[in-house]
Write a structure and sequence with these properties.
By secondary structure, the chain is α/β, with parallel strands linked by helices. 24% of the residues lie in helices and 30% in strands. The chain contains nine helices and 26 strands. The termini are far apart.
């Protein structure tokens, strides 16, 4: 049983790990290290309710400050980890050594910032509370023309929030369709129609060549030569694992910290979770990394329990699940949407809402819903979690 645990990364996965450790009766030393100076918060409303003004900053805190005191957690916020010495079992926290005998790495991911796009005022990514404050301020203080670059979940949500404030919005996506990383174009079609119906100009299949302006940005030039007016540019072109601080540590890192099925890294007593971890998919064994809130929470918990009792360690077998809220409609995906077979349980690509399952020929491997009720989606999600036979799922419905 470890007696001095460090959790590095104070967000969804890290806070859940801390709660699980104390919940399981761990009463040794516990330190939570975070690069962000803010009291830990949930990032998911940053592109939704926090931008529209439907939530305040206090609503998104993961735990009140006094709760960290009650749990006897040593908070080191605003202090990035800069290195890891596996042999000495020490984390370099912004220049001071933090010894550990158990370590959970939960440093998540950070926004991709294409070279040459930043430096002018009015250009942002949206990953942290501070980013959300700046984007919200720009949206509510007379920035009429907004260009959102990247039509993944976060980009689509930012476009919706900008329309909520009555702004002129263009959503630019280099791929042929929004949300293409998550779902095939047919399943994104109702989302695109909703965006357009609410006044978002959606431009797909063309990239951004450069951003123009003086001190402030004022135009975005697309690769086909089109010039878009831009008082505010929000870039949502993906994220990469925040694992640079582990360079040279000897841990195996390849698009995320590599773990086994129990989330243990290549070093004893060291676990990795959430957006920063790459673990073997329970069905295929292939290493996967996902950037979803539920996964981060569940892995934080699983790793904490496994660290406390490695001999009884259990594999993490959660089915990846993500949601996105745009214009009051919820999009949900469980498992994978890139599969051979697609079957609509309700509605279809030409409808305002739908519920679909996906299969690899043998079992249900994914469920996607747009609009509809949570109950309906949960039923489809269960088909994925249970690995229901494809023929059975389809015939049950017909
Ligand atoms: C704007 C936004 C909206 C989202 N919406 C949804 C949604 O609707 N649904 C959904 O399923 N998912 C959503 N996500 C994704 C979800 O929030 C993430 O998957 C989840 O937060 C991952 O949790 P994590 O704890 O692994 O990492 P993160 O939340 O990325 O947190 C990592 C923490 O580690 C800290 N850190 C980084 N480097 C260091 C270091 N060297 N030392 C110390 N600390 C460090 C960071 O400051 C951060 O606080 C959204 C993400 C964002 C940014």
């Amino acid at each position: 049983m470890p007696s001095n645990i460090a959790v590095v990364g104070a967000s969804v996965a890290g806070v859940e790990a801390v709660l699980a450790l104390r919940g399981a009766g761990y009463d040794g030393r516990l330190t939570l290290v975070g690069a962000d100076p803010e009291l830990p918060y949930n990032p998911t409303p940053l592109s939704k309710e926090l931008l529209t003004g439907d939530m305040e900053e206090d609503d998104i805190r993961l735990l009140p400050e006094e709760e960290f005191e009650n749990l006897d957690v040593g908070l080191r916020l605003g202090r990035p980890a800069k290195g890891l010495d596996l042999a000495e079992r020490r984390v370099d926290v912004d220049g001071s050594p933090l010894p550990y005998d158990g370590l959970i790495i939960a440093t998540g991911s950070r926004a991709v910032r294409p070279r040459g796009w930043f430096g002018r005022e009015g250009v942002h990514t949206l990953r942290t509370l501070d980013d959300a404050r700046r984007v919200h301020e720009a949206m509510t203080q007379g920035r009429p023309s907004v260009v959102v670059v990247g039509a993944g979940f976060i980009g689509c949500e930012i476009a919706a929030a900008a329309r909520h404030h009555g702004l002129d919005v263009t959503l630019v996506e280099a791929a042929a369709s929004p949300l293409l990383r998550a779902v095939p174009a047919a399943l994104a079609a109702p989302v695109v129609r909703l965006q357009e119906a609410r006044g978002v100009r959606v431009v797909c299949g063309v990239g951004v060549a450069r951003l123009l302006g003086g001190i402030r940005v004022d135009k975005v030039e697309l690769t086909d030569g089109t010039l878009l007016d831009a008082d505010l540019v929000v870039v949502g072109v993906g994220a990469v694992p925040a694992t640079d601080w582990l360079d040279g540590s000897g841990l195996s890192v390849e698009d995320g910290v590599i773990t086994d099925a129990t989330l243990r890294t290549t070093a004893p007593g060291v676990y990795a979770v959430g957006d920063a971890a790459r673990w073997p998919h329970p069905a295929t064994g292939d290493p996967i990394r996902v950037e979803h809130w539920t996964n981060a929470r569940e892995q934080g918990r699983r790793a904490a329990l496994n660290l406390l009792d490695p001999r009884a360690a259990q594999p993490y077998t959660g089915v990846p699940y993500v949601w996105s809220d745009q214009f009051g409609q919820r999009f949900q995906l469980a498992g994978t949407a890139h599969a051979k077979h697609l079957h609509f349980l309700d509605g279809g690509p030409d409808d305002e809402s739908y519920l679909a399952v996906l299969g690899d020929g043998e079992t249900v491997v994914g469920a996607v819903g747009f609009g509809g009720t949570p109950r309906q989606f949960n039923k489809a999600r269960r088909l994925v979690a249970d690995g229901t036979a494809w023929a059975e799922a389809v015939s049950r419905h017909e």
